[in-house]
Amino acid sequence: MAPSTLESTTFFFLTYVSFLKKATRWSFRLHSWLGLATGLFLLLFGLTGSALVFRPELDRWANPELHQLTPGPTTVSIDRMYRMLVRRYPNLTKIVLHDFPQGPADSYEFMLYRNLSRVQDAYLYFVVIDPYTGRILREGGYDEIGPSFWRWLNLFHYSFQAGAPGKLLGAVLGVTMILSLLTGLVIYRKHVWNVLRFRERINWKNRHRALSSLHRVVGVWSLLFNVLLFGTGLVMNATYFDPATWRLKPPIQNQVVPVSLDALLSRSKQRVPGFEPIAINIPTTAGQPILVRGHFPQTTFFLYQGKASHIAFDAQTGQLLTVDPIEHQPFGKRFHWASYQAHIGLFGGLPIRWLYVVLGLTPGLLSLTGAWLWYRRTRFKRQPKLVAA
């Protein structure tokens, strides 16, 4: 190799090494400060998120009186329940028949979207109705812990019970967590391959080594999952970066749609054979359609399951407007729904859900071990100064 070529190669190599050292140093500083600033929130995200993976089952288990009813000779129509709600609860932006009964002893659940006068308030309100009597069995806001702890916990996970500011904070924390994961990848880049090959394991010789290796090993194995989890959470709350999302609406006078919801539900099943209705969106203002939402038989992609597709009807005449399977909807809606499904983990059965429970605890574990490592590092930095004094 010619001397000039050797000198150039050496120069670039030394520059590259110097860059890596500086990148590692700055990444370590940013990683430490991000972890300290967001550690408590990450712990709360992890604990509540893992608990909410089985929220539907836990909610039903905790409230058997809502799902173990005595069947009667006749049932109340959806129309009758809806018309009672639209008159009983004023100033709504939308009414959603959120859950159909899962059996003859089960109840209906409606979700009411309240028009807010303050951005920090919670807009979700639920009403559970007996299908045989039309009687309200339970109702309350998602900001009230008494009517339903699991609904309260669900809102706490997404907004810390702080309304729009809480959701904005959640989006910001999504950004900081992704930055923390990326800086951690820079810091521990030399260990990633060894961890994935099981060449590097948790060192139990003493507490410091155990926590240090635990932080490293757990961080590597949960990296992709946490990027997925916080990335999808960021997508779900990204609209709160837009000032338009924060604008309050004037009081709403609920409109009562004249068409029969029961008839539209029946027509939707006839229009798309095999269609599985899961929810009905009912507008409270003029100009908005009624959406019968559910699953189309041709939808097979695992992140497009649930009530992503819909059939739209005119709210005044009942005329069929559109049939919109999720595959034909704009990319933004498809991406948002897929992100939501990936975030909650309801797409792969029990093995995936239990995996979400376990890996969902890793942000909290990383925040705790990271805080301990930072504390120990700063404590030992101060000791030489004390000895010298």
Search tags:
389 residues, SHC Adaptor Protein, eight-stranded antiparallel β-sheet, Nuclear Transport Factor 2, Chain: A, alpha+beta, 12 helices
Kindly describe this structure.
The chain has 389 residues and is α+β, with helices and mostly antiparallel strands. Among the domains are: 64-147, Nuclear Transport Factor 2, Chain: A (Roll); 253-328, SHC Adaptor Protein, CATH 3.30.505. Helices cover 53% and strands 13% of the residues. The chain has helices at 3-52, 55-62, 78-88, 149-159, 163-187, 189-196, 207-221, 223-237, 261-271, 331-344, 349-359, 362-388; strands spanning 92-99, 108-114, 124-129, 136-141, 276-283, 290-295, 309-313, 320-324. It has an 8-stranded antiparallel beta sheet, with helices on one face. β3 (124-129) and β4 form a beta hairpin. α6 (189-196) packs across α7 (207-221). The longest helix has 50 residues, at 3-52. The mean pLDDT is 87.
Contiguous helical run count: 12
The name of the CATH architecture of the domain at 64-147 is: Roll
Mean pLDDT: 87
Q: What share of residues are in beta strands?
A: 5-15%
From the N-terminal CA to the C-terminal CA, the straight-line distance is 55 Å
Strand order of the largest sheet: 4-3-2-1-5-6-7-8
Instruction: Using the CA coordinates, give the radius of gyration.
Output: 26 Å
Order of helices and strands: HHHEEEEHHHHHHEEEEHHH
The low-confidence runs, each spanning 5 or more residues with pLDDT under 50, are none
The CATH topology of the domain at 64-147 is Nuclear Transport Factor 2, Chain: A
Helicity level: 40-55%
Question: Which outline best applies?
Answer: elongated
Largest sheet: 8 strands, antiparallel
Tell me the number of strands.
8
User: In terms of structural class, how would the helical and strand content be classed?
Assistant: alpha+beta
What's the CATH first level of the domain at 64-147?
Alpha Beta
